[in-house]
Amino acid sequence: MSCTICPRNCKIDRTAAKGFCGCSSVVRVARAALHYDEEPSISGSRGSGTIFFSGCNLKCIFCQNMVLTDGTLGEICDVPRLADIMLKLQSLGAHNINLVTPTPHRDTLTEALRLAKENGLSIPVVYNTNAYETVETIRAFDGLVDIYLPDLKYVDPRLSLKFSRASDYFDTAIEAIGEMIRQVGFMQTDADGIAKKGVRIRHLVLPGCVYDTRNVLDAIKDRFGVDCPISLMSQFTPIPECTIKPLDRPLTQREYENALAYCISLGFTDVYTQDLTSVGRSFTPPFSDHLDL
Ligand code: SF4
User: Fold this and answer.
1) Are the CB atoms for 10 and 19 separated by under 8 Å?
2) Could you say which of 3.40.630.30, 3.20.20.70, 3.30.230.10, 3.30.420.10 is the CATH number of the domain covering 26-195?
3) pLDDT digits (tens, 9 = 90+) for 30-68
4) Measured from the CB, is residue 3 less than 6 Å from ligand 1?
5) Ligand 1 pocket, residue 131 CB under 6 Å
6) pTM flag (> 0.85)
């Protein structure tokens, strides 16, 4: 089968070779556990039942989870094992099942979600993505996913080419996010503030690139309006593997404050902001070839 799951359009047979994402036809999971570092509406008090998949179709040069991006780390999981992991996370009290970088595993995951739901999975399913997605792939999850957490990383194609080798990132991502909003609307929470359904767009402010954060915020406002929930993230942390300026230094507080001031000036009504102590803090959990569940 020729893989066209994401906009990389590798058109390779993943039973015989790996694509840009580093994934063959098997699914590797490098961590499945309750996770407390998402937005409060996702982590809540009991944690988000997070499943970190190995491999990535974007491979940003500043990725904090770089160890996962070549697709080699993690336990191989088939459909029944994935469904079992979801049900175990639910039994541990997770507020939701949070699929991190699920894109290359679309076909296995849609099957696993159907099986888990048949066997009693009832908590919301979160699709946590870099948004470098085709509309067709997002449509494959229609009715299976309750909450989408897409990044919107860049507007400027020079940045997306330099940092993620994807000059078409913005044009592609904005259409995929449009499909997510068509499916589930904007994020809604229950009386306890826990997300039940909908989309929240995330944007990580990059050092030296606040001008493009303004572009991103303008684009969200123009396309989806100021009621679109957003998370303006400050947690960029330089990694030793990335020495390209300006990504070799942390975001400054002044840069984050400038980004936030612009966001507020546009009139967004639902903005999650990170404490400035998040600047430079590592959010990388431990990964492994063997899952504890
Ligand atoms: S999912 Fe992987 S193999 Fe398939 S098109 Fe995307 S990068 Fe290529």
Assistant:
1) yes
2) 3.20.20.70
3) 999 999 999 999 999 999 999 999 999 999 999 988 888
4) yes
5) no
6) yes
